[in-house]
Amino acid sequence: MDAKQVVDLLYWRDVKKTGVVFGAALLLLLSLTVCSIVSVCSYVGLALLSVTICFRIYKGILQAIQKSDEGHPFKQYLDQEVALPEDVVHKYSDLALAKLNKTVCELRRLFLVEDLIDSIKFAGLMWVLTYVGSLFNGLTILILVLIGVFSCPIVYEKHQTQIDHYVALVNNQVKDIVGKVQAKVPGMKRKAE
Description:
- Helices cover 80% and strands 0% of the residues.
- It is an all-alpha fold and 193 residues long.
- Helix 2 (15-34) runs antiparallel to helix 7 (138-158).
- The protein is elongated and about 90 Å long.
């Protein structure tokens, strides 16, 4: 799936396709709130097997009644190649490794206080996340993220000018406040980048 397909999916260009992906992902996450991941995987596998076995038996009975020789109903899918191309696996594993290394370097920089301002911001984020963690569990946050990922792009697309206006106002206010705080607190002036 390339970037254009992901954007089309998130912007609901094909409502049926997006609805299926969003609905299936939301159903999976909601199922995980009730059952363990092992149970959910087992139930999904059993449901899929039930559908395919019933369809295969149904097609076999139809072929016997109509005396036709259509063959296996899933023949086209059984003949398709499902192996992952080695170059694609290497490409994405290299990208993941580069991201991981960059993240480790950034965390080292933050935890070892290379820049005091960034480390204080990071500490503030961690402090806020302790409150978020006490209010929500991981699955609830994933469900909210999924809903946000599928709803925010379309809302932004429809109301872009108003959202951009208010975001600019908030950014200006935050810059003014940060500038005032940095000017008053010794040792908090940002280094020239």
